[in-house]
Every structure is written in C-alpha cells, then in structure tokens.
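pasting for ref
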Amino acid sequence: MRRKEDQEKGGYVDRYSPRLLFFLILIVGLNILDSLFTMIILEFGGWEVNPLVRPAMEVFGDQFWVWKFLLVSFNLVLLCLHSRFGYVNKGILWITIMYLGVIFYQVLLMRIHIF
C-alpha cells in the first residue's frame, strides 16, 4: 500500500511486519502461560473465574489447554489477516496488555498462596 489514502483505509496483504509477528507470538506464549498457571492454581485449590473457560474445563478436563490454544490461535490468524486495518492493531495491543495483566495476577496469586 503505497498511497497514504490506501494505508488509512486498510486492506489485505501477503507481507506482515516483524512487530506484528512479535505481538502474535507473545500472545501465544502468554496464552500457554495462562493455561499452565491456571492448572497450577487449580491444583492448589483455586477455581476458574472465567465463565467461558469454566465449562470447557469441565468438558475437556486436563486437556482444556488444547481447546484454549486452538481457539486463541485461530483467532490470532484472523487478526493477522486483518492487521492492516488500524483498529485491529489496537485490538492486538489491548489483547497483549490484557494477557500480561492476567499473567501478573496469576503470579501474584501463586506467590501469595502457593510459595
């Protein structure tokens, strides 16, 4: 997209920025950490607060992380495909911030109650 008007509109391309790759991989890594920390907290008597994940955990048991990983990864592919639209990049940034907050909270929980 060479013209400024085209860049402002957004669109679909077959080349993506290294910054986008960094954030997408960071979100996948944070998603995996979230699943791992959730399992650790559950083993020590905690409970799942997310009303969307709780039923999946009941259905899939210890393998819920596979379901969660696939769901998040599929949505990240969709976000990547639409990344040239400005609001999508802001959404990716907010998802990253949200996951960092969740991981920080889980680390605090584990530090206070487990270790």
